[in-house]
Amino acid sequence: MFSDAVLASAGVNKGDRRRVDRGDSLLELINGSVPLIPVLRSLLLKGPIQLHETNRMMPTSMLVRLRIVVAMAPFDVNSVTTQGWQSQELNDATRLLDSYSLRQMMQQWPDVMVLAVTDPFYREVVEPLPAGVLPAAFDEIVVDGKNGPMVAWRTAPMAAGVYGWAEERSS
Question: How far apart (Å, rounded) are the C-alpha atoms in residues 30 and 3?
Fold first, then answer.
């Protein structure tokens, strides 16, 4: 499965995550002690390659396209059910995942993975250049949330090359 391969390459153990299958979407809730940089790096580098390999074997009419949202949110793992969870941040991430902006970007390319991060994730993980992520590879978007407009950041990493990742810089 896509998420198993990508998260394993980020060093995320199965015990540090909880999967919630909602039929038309899959949530991977990852323990807050897991470092975020390897997860983002794996999504940007391994994700498109994994998707491309999957689609290589599929007929054109059945290509898989992915919308992925990464958010930082406190939650109680015991409160997660098939109906939802107790976290405004996670509810906002779900709204972001279903936004017109991500769907529109995904329609532009047949073999693409669209990745969006919430504004707090962007500010804490993407924006600091020493982390290695190229902030310029992300476009700021505003989507409608339950409590008004939400700022988020999106990118479309491609399997053909490394997109959105800079060389590590020494401090």
Answer: 12
CB distance 129 to 170 below 8 Å: no
Give 70-129 pLDDT, tens digit per residue: 988 766 556 656 555 667 777 788 888 888 888 888 777 666 788 899 999 999 888 886
Task: Please state, for a pLDDT cut of 70, what percent of the chain lies above it.
Answer: 76
Q: How far is CA 151 from CA 12, 25, 26, 72, 99, in A?
A: 28, 22, 23, 14, 12
Helix axes 36-56, 2-9, angle to 10 degrees: 140
C-alpha angle 128-134-139 in degrees, rounded to nearest 5: 100
Which residue from 130, 132, 101, 127 is spatially nearest to 115, judged by alpha carbons? 101
DSSP labels, the chain: -HHHHHHHHTT--GGGEEEEE-SS-EEEEE-TTS-HHHHHHHHHHHHHHHHHHHHHTS-GGG---EEEEE------GGG-BTTB-S-HHHHHHHHHHT-HHHHHHHHT-SS-EEEEEEHHHIIIIISSGGG-B-GGGSEEEEEEETTEEEEEEEE---TTS--SBPPP---
* Cα–Cα nearest to 2, from 51, 38, 70: 51
